[in-house]
Amino acid sequence: MRYEVVLFDLYGTLIDIRTDEQAAQPWQELWEFLDATGAHYDDAAHLKASFEQLNAVNVQEARKGAEHPDWVEPDVLPVFQRLYAAGGSMASPQLAAKAAWVFRKASTSKFGLYPGALQMLGKLREAGIRTVLASNAQACYTRPEIEATGLSKALDRIVISSEEGMRKPSPKFFLRALEYEYTTPDRALMVGNEEQCDIQGAASAGIDGVYLHTAISRQDDPEICKQAVLSLEGADYDALTSFVLSE
Predict the structure, then answer these.
(1) Model-level pTM greater than 0.85?
(2) Which stretch is the leader sequence (predicted)?
(3) CA angle centred on 183, ends 181 and 184, rounded to 5°
């Protein structure tokens, strides 16, 4: 077979999800959790304003001097730790992670694997193909979700942008994932639902791409991506598997 490693995007490719971090409820639940664990703010609105200010500084520090600032991915977990400090308390990384998870759960209205995701990954692994997650995400949100869905056992490796300090569409992100697998771009395939981040980003690293046009693809993304070696409507894992195993 041509491909020995298949890289997968996560949200919109393996997981169907809807989140709203601007809604009032996530900030209210985070405020209640912080207040109960030692960090005090007047109300949820003041907490949100503090978070946004601390996060802006975190992003600015991480991206300072970068050639491509938009390709830098700062980890948001330290922001939750700094929220505790600003609220008059101290927090371990473990407590900050719990706070982040409270916020994530409260901001999520829909969550679950696309039907057949685990079966598809199993078929590829049975054929001797390594399956690797290559996701733009925050690990403090994503790691628990990967565990909850069973993806942690279905994937051979998990590469998350916040842990690498870089994000798609940077070619370095894709190449980093391949370095972990000791393989080369011509032996890899990227599967994702965003034209720029997933398909064009992979192509910039010399990697073929399969495009899944799903409900949470970007609104300005096309139904068919001309740069992809295969474009599919929705999470059509049967067609994806047939393509990979026939190459």
Answers:
(1) yes
(2) none
(3) 140
